[in-house]
Known about the structure:
Blueprint: E1 11-17, E2 23-26, E3 29-30, E4 36-45, E5 49-57, E6 65-68, E7 70-75, E8 90-95, H1 104-107, E9 110-112, E10 120-121, E11 128-132, E12 140-143, E13 146-149, E14 161-163, E15 166-171, E16 196-200, H2 211-216, H3 232-239, E17 244-251, E18 257-259, E19 264-267, E20 270-273, H4 279-284, E21 310-312, E22 321-323, H5 330-335, E23 342-347, H6 364-377, E24 383-387, H7 390-399, E25 405-408, H8 426-429, H9 431-440, E26 445-449, H10 450-455, H11 457-465, E27 469-475, H12 480-489, E28 493-496
Parallel strand pairs: 16-17, 16-28, 17-23, 23-24, 24-25, 25-26, 26-27, 27-28
Antiparallel strand pairs: 1-5, 1-7, 2-3, 2-6, 4-5, 8-11, 8-15, 9-10, 9-12, 12-13, 14-15, 17-18, 19-20, 21-22
GO molecular function: phosphoric diester hydrolase activity
Organism: Hexamita inflata
Protein name: Glycerophosphoryl diester phosphodiesterase family protein
Amino acid sequence: MNPIYASADATLHIKYKSSSKIQVLINDKILESKKVISDKTVYEEFNNLSYETVTIKIGTQCTTLKLTSFITAYDLDTKRMFTFDFGDPFAIIYVNNLITGPVKTLQAGQVLYNPFMPPLTFSAEADLFFIPLEPGFAPVFTVGKKQFEHSSPVDRTTQDFNHGDFCYQFMEWTTKMDFDTETTHSIKSLDIPRPLRLGHRGCGSNKIYSELAKEHFKLDYNPKNHIAENTIFAFNEAYKRIDGVELDIILTRDMVPVINHDFGVDHDLGKLAINSLTAEQFQKIQIQRTHQIGEHQTSLVEKIVENEPVRTPWNENLYHIVGDKYRPTFAQVLNETNEGLMINVEIKYNAACSESVGQRYFSRVQVIEQTLKCIQDNKQHPIYFSTFDPVCALILKYAQNKYPVLHLNLGVGIFEESEDVDMTQKICLHVKNGVEFAKKFGLQGVVTSMVVVLTMPEVIIDGVSKGLEMFSWGTLPCAHEWIEKQTKMGMKGLIYDMVTMIDPK
């Protein structure tokens, strides 16, 4: 099992009932009393119950931490709590509108967990918070002077519960995940002298590049990727040249994780929401590609060729692509690609502006649970997660400790509506906020646009200096000068389009 604390200098701050005797067990051994330092601070909270605080010097690496008579424990540096086990139920709370004022208690609302959870204060730096839950206990929220207790049954299918200026999402598995943490994968563990090279949706997006993009990359032609994006064929072709691929997860009506960039696919009946189709129906819709410059929308064309890779004919404004007969499920990708293929699994979650989701999409909990279960039940790969949705990122982070989690960030100055980006969420809209969010909540890194990396290098360098794994998308293999600049900045990974420009290994 991974160490909770890898550093011998780790410190915990613990609040406990003053009438109780506290006992700390590190790796199942009782901690020496001299390492438990009381600051003799007594708090009167929750119906006049008294509490004291102590500071604990861990003094060693530990994989287990047990406390008796405790209320909660914080890492003094990160404020992360260690009062739960991975896979246990929990809730994530976030506010949409922060309360501001000169007094600390007025700057933000407090989140309380039953009578024994000390207050967690929302700060101006981030508006997402995590609290552990125990079965049968109802959380109590206090925002300003208003208090709200969640009294209805926990419904895993509910997107969010809303109350005034804040909302919250419960997290509880139907079955407990059983990940082999002895073989925990870390992006840092891949010891290579260059950034990781990953293929965007396989060998690259099938979008048509504009004339401006051609000038941007200093090419005398418009680059075209002739391999269908998000297909097993593309993933296998990419692995002949690079380290791994990036792919997008969507759930079908029967809750099967499938691979597609958008929440909908075009059909002769019109655009169909993937979550309104069964996996079988989704797979039979022909693999297509975009016909609009710079956009991700798809267009249905002729029937698929039965016994060979699909060669899709297009009119004079388009071009041919080669792909598979069927669209893949995530399980098929895991089982039909080389186990050495690194997979960046992007969890797509629909934003308010999404028009391609039938009725209501599944809850974040359901999307992530089905994705993790698929990974658990199929051939193992080196995997890391990424997502634009901050709540999904925290669920992924606190639900398992095997696979790294990266925050996807648009950067700055990009105001196009995107179906999977909440354009009202400040964390998503500026890479500086993304770096602060990732560091605050212990995510492994941030992924943003190559253009942002090159125009705001100081933010990227700051992220690297904070120990974050910084990735970018949008690089072409022919952009040698840009690749060199990103490498010198300390970028951990580059997500390429036009992967076929790279010679096979």
